[in-house]
Hints:
alpha+beta; single chain
Amino acid sequence: MGVTWAGVRERVLALREAPRWWAVFGAEGGHGFELLPALTEEQLRAVERRLGTELPEEYRAFLLEVGAGGAGPDYGLFPIRPPEPDAPPVTDHCALPFRSELTAELEREEPQRAYYPDDDAFFAAYAAWDVRRDELHDAFTEGTLCINHQGCGYYSLLAVTGPLRGTMWNDVRAIGEGVVPVEPRAGRTGHVSFTQWYLDWLDHAERRAWDTTTEPPPRVGFTSSRTPAGKL
Length: 232
């Protein structure tokens, strides 16, 4: 069954007029509840050819019906722009298998000198461990598309290959923890889909932006508080 995003673009853009739109994290000085125009099917196909893989259905429908970037969780969705006709394919990063199990390897303890008979054995084990950590750092995000910045070096990833295709992940390599699944909302279990992730944010944004019954947080006071559409 196809995914529909009917009315979502209108809901997002309406938040620009909400009395406390600026109280939603990432809106002031960030996306400002602006959305890029939606892609056409032809433009989206060109994007997928360049990435080397077809994007998950829910995200494809969003790009076709809502917008190609802009307002969204945290600092908003990165723009997806059609490539120029002569643009070369990007690396095969997105088309590679997504291997969520790799993060478990980070639990391997750093080699300790006390467990090795001599310095040579310890240095060899430590060098192998260090090389593997570097390999893992690059491999964690294979088969994913980075779709937003959460701040402080954290990113949101959409799995685009494998059995977990279409689910949302947090890139927390900045603190050495690899890639971990987005936590489901209270009362839910399992992996979070793109649709759940986005609509949960929109529900929260509407409650916060339209709420005039509580004391609002202080404004950050950016000089330019909104990002014009198309200038992401």
